[in-house]
Specification:
Helix content is about 10%, strand content about 40%. It has about 500 residues and is mainly beta. It is built from eight helices and 32 strands. The chain has helices at about 35-40, 80-90, 105-110, 240, 285-290, 335-340, 385-390, 440, and strands at about 70, 70-75, 125-130, 140-150, 155-160, 165-175, 180-185, 185-195, 210-215, 220-225, 235, 250-255, 260-265, 270-275, 285, 295-305, 310-315, 320-325, 335, 345-355, 360-365, 370-375, 385, 395-405, 405-415, 420-425, 435, 445-455, 460-465, 470-475, 485, 495-505. The strands form eight sheets. A six-stranded antiparallel beta sheet has the order 6-5-4-3-8-7. It has a four-stranded antiparallel beta sheet with strand order 11-10-9-32.
């Protein structure tokens, strides 16, 4: 963010003139509390890019570079200041941070499933004009929450503010979506909070959870897997969100602690609802009315990037994509093949994942699997043949993907679901070989459907089987797998026609 982009409020603390003989602060060996983080940055109030005793700011071991060289500012440095503050206090997993404010979105996605709507002292607060695309803009900014007030306002301390200094803004709106200032003709919004992993006070009490929705006998049910591995019972979503008729395909995605659910209703329309973090449900809304009419929708997939929900739909053998913005508006369903190229056969299955903040899509057509990326400016890359890159798994039936770190994990069912395979696409675009999962899952079964999600940076997958079970497995960060275990489906009625898994706080 440029130093002129942030217009400080009238309540901002005046810049303090600090002496030149400051001591350079070295990183702490252990993670501190949010209060400790704030104490660290209060000591820098009034400093410019060459504060910290002339050494400037950055987080070692990350993509950040020093804010100061030879006594001069090197680049916009709000992200460097926030990264330095966290690094100084032993915050973990800082690798994805770089000189851009939006790298804190990536940090939040990797460590807490996305930006949170609940502020804590010591959190990074990210700002972005939501009227602009989700990628980098010159108006992005990040700062550290220095106080949270009972009336819903917050204070923050940030670098590169008020003409290029460390200053404090007080009693600012603390809700996600609030307009915090205007710059360059754009309203700049509060987009959410990233909690410092390893600090003692902001972490959620029960950890990240896997949320699962299931089509049971044409109705839609929801349950969750807690951080300790236990499952809750399943409840009927329509009893709270409204009856949408006999349900078809279902999908879910976590965003800021909430769970977004999309489903095909009895009239063939796509519907959307939200389960809030407190467990309450909103009413189903008709997506077709907002994003355009699709017919014969046979498969849905959903994933969040930043504060936006991306929905992918297989309809009439084609593939369509829409985005639900934070304000609840939808973009029209766009024809993916019109952008990425026509596939050699009708699409029978598809899935999408957020990988390092970028949308990646896979599709099954003619029994083969294809891959494309959608850049933050909305452009699609041409389809690539996954079987050419990762090996031939046989006639593909279904596919699921999830982003863990900078990799995309893919699970393919083949030979009418009798075989299951896994591969990964690295950040460099290289593919590992598709590997038969029979030995690692510990059992042989026939799957009618597969879903996948990143939960605490691990791959979790579910398989709906021909004998009416739903199996769950975890691929750990070290690459080992848990055996496929039958889920406790208490509360679900009827046959199990589909399932979707996502991770939320």
């Amino acid at each position: 963010m440029s130093k002129t982009a942030l217009r400080a409020s009238s309540t901002a603390v005046a810049a303090l003139v600090l002496g030149a003989g400051l001591t350079v602060l070295a990183p702490s060996a252990q993670a501190a509390s949010g209060a400790d983080i704030v104490a660290t940055i209060r000591g820098q109030l009034g400093s410019d890019a060459c504060g910290n005793g002339g050494a400037g700011y950055y987080a070692p071991g990350t993509g950040q570079t020093r804010s100061c060289s030879g006594g001069s500012e090197t680049h916009a440095w709000c992200a460097d200041f926030a990264g330095w503050a966290w690094s100084r206090n032993g915050v973990k997993n800082l690798g994805p941070l770089n000189n851009l404010a939006n790298s804190f979105q990536t940090y939040a996605r990797n460590n807490q499933g996305g930006l949170s709507s609940t502020p804590h002292v010591g959190d990074a607060v990210f700002f972005h004009p939501k009227s602009q695309p989700a990628g980098f803009t010159n108006y992005d900014h990040v700062a550290i929450v220095s106080a949270v007030h009972a009336n819903g306002t917050i204070d923050w301390i940030g670098g590169n503010q008020s003409g290029g200094y460390v200053t404090e803004n007080k009693n600012m709106p603390g809700s996600v979506g609030a307009v915090e200032w205007t710059s360059g003709g754009y309203n700049v919004n509060l987009m959410g909070f990233a909690s410092p992993f390893g600090a003692s006070d902001p972490a959620p009490a029960d950890g990240m959870k896997a949320q699962v929705v299931v089509n049971g006998g044409g109705a839609i049910f929801h349950g969750l897997r807690k951080a300790d591995g236990t499952w809750t019972g399943f409840g009927n979503i329509e009893s709270q969100a409204g009856d949408i008729g006999t349900v078809g395909s279902v999908a879910d995605a976590g965003l800021n602690g909430d769970t977004h659910v999309v489903a095909v209703g009895g009239n063939g329309h796509v519907y959307h609802t939200i389960r809030l973090a407190n467990g309450s449900w909103g009413k189903f809304g008709d997506v077709n009315a907002a994003a355009g009419n699709l017919t014969d929708v046979t498969k849905l997939s959903a994933v969040t990037i930043g504060t936006e929900l991306n929905v992918l739909a297989v309809a009439d053998g084609g593939l369509y994509h829409s985005v639900r913005h934070f304000d609840g508006s939808w973009t029209p369903f766009g024809d993916v093949m019109a952008e990425a190229g026509t596939l050699p056969a009708p699409v029978t299955s598809a899935a999408e994942a957020s990988v390092n903040g970028q949308l990646q899509v896979v599709a099954v057509a003619g029994g083969r699997v294809y891959h494309s990326l959608r850049s933050n400016d909305g452009n699609w890359t041409p389809w690539g043949d996954v079987y050419t890159e990762a090996g031939n798994a046989g006639v593909a039936s279904d596919v699921a993907v999830a982003g863990t770190g900078t990799d995309m994990q893919i699970v393919v069912t083949a030979n009418n679901g009798a075989k299951q395979f896994h591969a990964a696409r690295t950040a460099a675009g290289n593919w590992t070989a598709l590997t038969d999962l029979t030995s690692v899952l510990g059992s042989s079964f026939t799957a009618t459907g597969v879903s996948a999600a990143a939960v605490d940076n691990e791959l979790q997958a579910t398989f709906v089987t021909t004998d009416n079970r739903i199996l769950h497995t975890v691929r750990r960060v070290n690459g080992t797998w848990t055996g496929a275990a039958a889920m406790n489906l208490t509360g679900i009625t009827g046959n199990h026609y589909g399932a979707s898994i996502t991770g939320t706080l």
